[in-house]
Structures are given as structure tokens and as C-alpha cells.
Write the C-alpha cells for this entry.
Amino acid sequence: MKNLSGQIAVITGASSGIGKAIALSLAGEGLTLCLTGRSTTSLETVAALARETSPKVLSYPVDLTDQAEFNRFIEQLKADVSHVNLFIHCAGVLTVGRIKAIDMEVLDLQYRTNVRAAYALTKEFLPLIKHGAGQIVMMNSSIWQHARAELSQYASMKYALKAFTDSLRDEVNQDGIRVLSMFLGRTATPMLAELHQQQGTQYIPEDLIQPSDVAETLLHLLMLPRSAEVTDIHIRPMKKS
Ligand SMILES: NC(=O)c1ccc[n+]([C@@H]2O[C@H](COP(=O)([O-])OP(=O)(O)OC[C@H]3O[C@@H](n4cnc5c(N)ncnc54)[C@H](OP(=O)(O)O)[C@@H]3O)[C@@H](O)[C@H]2O)c1
């Protein structure tokens, strides 16, 4: 297994849930971390925890759907790092609603957060992603295989993300950059707690995948020898609903 110590990782959505768990897991492996999220307070809490083990942690509060904030963020990040080894996209939002009821503005926001931000960041940072040692990870969802009522917008975004990720892999594999889609079932994060609240169903976090399960799986995949690439990984809760 390859040691990741000394590498530089950028993680979006690091202020909460899955991104937070991944940030803390990579901090423990000695990586330099560049963390983003919207909430300054939550981001700083994660950054402070990560600093207990990581040699260097930079945090960037940014709303990725706001073009001016986005531009300032990429300018700052490019000034702060010479290259990136790992770019892990966890920022995402989920809104449920039937097609006839849900507003188009909600679709636009989900597009800007769940697809456009990952695309735009990839476009900006591909030249800095280290050839021969770069890895890009997209947090996708099991909804990709199971689109259903009330999830048309979110499912559409995750389908688009999967298509983008596959095209990206085809373009960058020749530069020695690995590209991974993680397709997650229900994971115990604030996003899921809110979903249960919206749907009026009981939230039992211990029945779900834990964010640390995702982080542990990802760490293993990131450390694989460079002779192999895992392109897609599906994780489901052990307890089926
Ligand atoms: N939980 C699940 O069951 C599940 C299953 C499959 C896939 N996923 C995917 O996993 C990823 C992480 O989700 P999670 O469950 O960890 O959710 P979460 O706890 O709600 O975290 C979402 C993260 O995205 C950030 N974010 C949202 N909108 C943003 C914006 N406009 N600009 C910048 N950052 C933004 C949030 O920042 P703030 O909190 O600071 O606002 C937060 O850090 C998402 O892509 C989600 O679709 C989750």
C-alpha cells in the first residue's frame, strides 16, 4: 500500500458528514489538507480537529454556487498550493419533492452544487493535479441506480455527475490520474437527518452506513498501488430497509 504522507488533498464539503470524516481520516495519514465548506464555524471546528494530526490544514469558507466567492476561492487556493495530489468532491445538497411541486430554482441550486461546482473545480485545477500521482474522487449515490419518486432532481444530478466522472477518467487516465466514483447508500449525516425530517420518517443513524465507513474504504482505495485503479465502488448499509 502506498503511503500518502506529505501529499496535498483538497476536500469540498469538509465542514460536515462524509467530507468531514474523510478530512479527519486523511489528517491522520499526515497529508496537508485544504478544506472547504459554507459554514465558517463548522469548517473551523473540523480544521482544528484535523490540525491535531495533519502537518498543515488550510480552510476556505466558500459558497460554491456563488460565482464571486468561487472565483476568490480558486485564486486563493492556487496561490496557496503548487500542486494537488487528491481532489475529493463531497459538497452536495439534497432536496426532495414531486416534479409538479418542486421549484425550478431548487433544480438550479442542486445543479450548481452537485454538478457544476465539481465540473468547474476540476476544470480549474486539472493542470495542478499531479501527473502520475493524482487522484480525483466524486461522492455519488446509490440513487444513481434507483431513481424514484420525489428524487427526480437529485437523481438527475447524480446521473450527470456519473457521466462527467466517466468522461473525465477517459481524458486523464493517460496522465496517470485515477478517478473514482463512490456510490453510497444511506449514510448517517446531517443531510440524511434532514431528509428523514422532511419525509416524516424516523432517523436511526446506527442502522445506516457511518461516515467513518466511507472514509476508511476511501483511504484503502487511495493507497492502492498505482498499477491498479478502482473506478466505481458501491457501499450499502448492512441493514436493509
Ligand atoms: N448521506 C447520504 O446518505 C449520502 C448518500 C449518497 C451520497 N451522498 C453524497 O455525499 C456528499 C456529502 O453528503 P453528506 O451526507 O456528508 O451531507 P452533509 O453532511 O449535508 O454535508 C454536505 C457538505 O456540502 C457542503 N455544501 C453544501 N452546499 C454547498 C455550497 N453551495 N457551497 C459549498 N459547500 C456546500 C456543506 O457545507 P455546510 O454544511 O458548511 O453548509 C457540507 O460540508 C454529497 O454529495 C451527497 O450527495 C450522501
Notes: The pocket of NAP is lined by residues 13, 15-19, 37-39, 42, 62-65, 90-94, 113, 139, 141, 184, 186-187, 189-192 (CB under 6 Å).
